[in-house]
Specification:
Elements lengths: L8 H12 L23 E6 L14 H6 L7 E3 L5 E3 L2 E6 L4 E6 L13 H13 L12 E6 L2 E6 L6 H4 L29 E7 L3 E6 L12 E6 L3 H10 L4 E5 L1 H4 L7 E14 L9 H10 L2 H8 L4 E3 L9 H6 L16 E7 L4 H15 L3 E7 L5 H5 L5 E7 L7 H9 L13 H12 L4 H17 L2 E13 L3 E2 L16 E2 L1
Parallel strand pairs: 1-10, 1-11, 14-15, 14-16
Antiparallel strand pairs: 2-3, 4-5, 5-7, 6-7, 8-9, 9-10, 11-17, 12-16, 12-17, 13-17, 18-19
Helix pairs in contact: 1-5, 12-13, 12-14, 13-14
Protein name: ABC transporter substrate-binding protein
GO molecular function: peptide transmembrane transporter activity
InterPro entries: Peptide/Ni-bd (IPR030678), SBP_5 (IPR039424), SBP_5_dom (IPR000914)
């Protein structure tokens, strides 16, 4: 087994202290440190986030999940723990025909700019999402229109879509005040959400500040506000919990977990898969035999036991133990391509540094691939500086930690986005008629056992191409200081600080 190189706890602590310097400066005039010890727990919560905003906190991008985790932007529909649709800004809904749904908008909701939620405002937000370029990932392959009819939003799809309610739960389809939407096409979430916290200031890609919104339609927030710092370095996030600089830290690296008090960390099983995407359009992995050779070369046990210190599960497919039905219903995969000898084929293997384990995992993979006969060059950058090249297919292989039910709570949307010809997040550049057919069938099947079976058929179709090699399923470690209570441990990564989160 390849051995990982570890620094001493003392060295890590010293390095983290240096990295931490300046990370947690107040985000704005409202973001003060005062009140942390208030008897009623109403002080401000300091939050260390993993990735800085990539699109100016636009809700039409992946930044939407930050707005959701801060409880500032809300959607018409929410999801329960089982992934079933529940009321949000809509109090009820009904399917009127195969392609038409009606959603009743909640009364008494005001946005942070003082304007009121109406069906017309909700329809406006959805319409802007459908016209965005690029469209939000949740709308990949979906033609959708929205219009107001009294207190209802009428949503119509080009083809029957049994998951419209779940689709509208995606943070990328958050409903904001009309003032958020600019003629330029940009969307500004500052002061335009409807949640228990109002986003009041954004300090570029470094900080953000939110204040409690006393006009909230639901349960009022117990904390006075949230001070966010974006800290891509995992050692610095862990150090922030140790030092008390942060009350909550996202995604503490596995290598840092053992340095923290066990009472301050929670291991959260995630519907997240570490996958090696292989470029099927150009380069050596255009050859199915070489893709198969890469698959045969990879030993995920080394990653689980070495890099992740057994805080992860070996992958049997794209979908992991967070979806128990996947393991129960998955059949053995037969008829796979056999690997060909690489004969020194030169490949570029890339990943990003924001998740501390990924560069280390890439180094292990490099050794395994080189032992199999590939010549490997490695590229590692911050995600914000590598995503564009990855999506453009400039690498032969890319290691990604990918949430499989992030958007609608249903894996079909992830498969549509990542593995179909028109998918907007198709790192493997895959365009395979069998995959497209299987994914379309899964997306069109009504919720329930039949849909789950169709999803597993689509998974098998993807795996047969060897365009994606699932390696392991993560268990994310969240850090919570002893002084905070009520943070959410959400496998879908949609909620984190809620109205119930407070300081003791």
């Amino acid at each position: 087994m390849h051995q990982r190189i570890s620094l001493s706890a003392t060295a890590l602590a010293a390095a983290s202290a240096l990295l931490l310097t300046g990370c947690f400066a107040p985000a704005g005039d409202s973001a003060t440190r005062d009140g942390d010890g208030d008897d009623d727990g109403g002080g401000r919560i300091r939050l260390a986030m993993l990735q800085p905003p990539r699109s100016g906190l636009s809700p039409l991008s992946d930044d939407a999940f930050k707005l959701s985790r801060w409880s500032t932007a809300e959607t018409l529909i929410s999801l329960d723990d089982a992934g079933d649709a529940r009321p949000g800004l809509a109090t009820g809904w009904a399917r009127k025909s195969a392609t038409t749904w009606e959603f009743t908008v909640r009364d008494g909701v005001t946005f942070h700019d003082g304007s009121e939620l109406t069906a017309e405002v909700a329809a406006h937000s959805l319409t802007r999402a459908t016209k965005a370029s690029p469209k939000p990932r949740i709308l990949d392959g979906v033609e959708l229109t929205a219009k107001a009819d009294g207190d209802k939003v009428v949503v119509t799809t080009a083809v029957p879509d049994p998951l419209v309610p779940q689709r509208l739960s995606s943070p990328q389809l958050a409903v904001l005040a009309k003032s958020a939407y600019r003629k330029s096409g940009t969307v500004n979430p500052v002061g335009t959400g409807s949640g228990p916290y109002e986003l009041v200031k954004v300090g570029g890609t470094s900080t953000a500040a939110l204040d409690r919104y006393d006009g909230y339609w639901g349960k009022k927030a117990k904390a006075a506000g949230i001070d966010v710092s974006f800290v891509p370095d995992g050692a610095a996030r862990a150090a922030a919990i140790r030092s008390g600089e942060a009350h909550i830290a996202e995604a503490v690296p596995v290598s840092q977990a053992s340095l923290l008090d066990e009472k301050t960390i929670t291991e959260v099983p995630m519907p997240r898969t570490n996958t090696l995407y292989l470029n099927t359009r150009r380069g050596p992995f255009k050859d199915a035999g070489l893709r198969a050779a890469a698959r045969e070369a990879i030993d995920a046990r080394e990653l689980v036991e070495g890099v992740y210190e057994n805080r992860a599960d070996r992958a049997e497919g794209l979908l992991g133990p967070a979806l128990p039905w996947a393991a129960e219903g998955r059949a053995a995969l037969k008829g796979r391509t056999k690997g060909e000898a690489p004969h020194g084929a030169a490949i570029t293997l890339a990943t990003f540094s924001d998740r501390a384990e990924l560069p280390e995992a890439a180094s292990v993979l490099q050794q395994q691939l080189e032992e199999a006969g590939f010549e490997v060059k490695q590229v590692v950058r911050e995600y914000a500086h590598i995503e564009e090249d990855a999506l453009a297919g400039k690498f032969d292989a890319f290691v990604l930690s990918r949430a499989t039910v992030l958007d609608s709570g249903d894996p079909a949307a992830y498969m549509q986005s990542d593995f179909t010809c028109e998918g907007s997040f198709n790192l493997a550049q895959l365009c395979d008629k069998n995959v497209d057919k299987a994914v379309r069938k899964a997306a069109a099947t009504a919720a329930g056992d039949a849909r789950r079976a169709a999803i597993l058929d689509a998974e098998a179709a993807v795996l047969r191409t060897d365009a994606a090699i699932p390696m392991l399923h993560e268990r994310v470690v969240q850090g919570d200081a002893p002084s905070v209570t009520g943070s959410t441990k959400d496998p879908r990564e949609r909620t984190l600080v809620t109205a119930d989160t407070r300081l003791k």
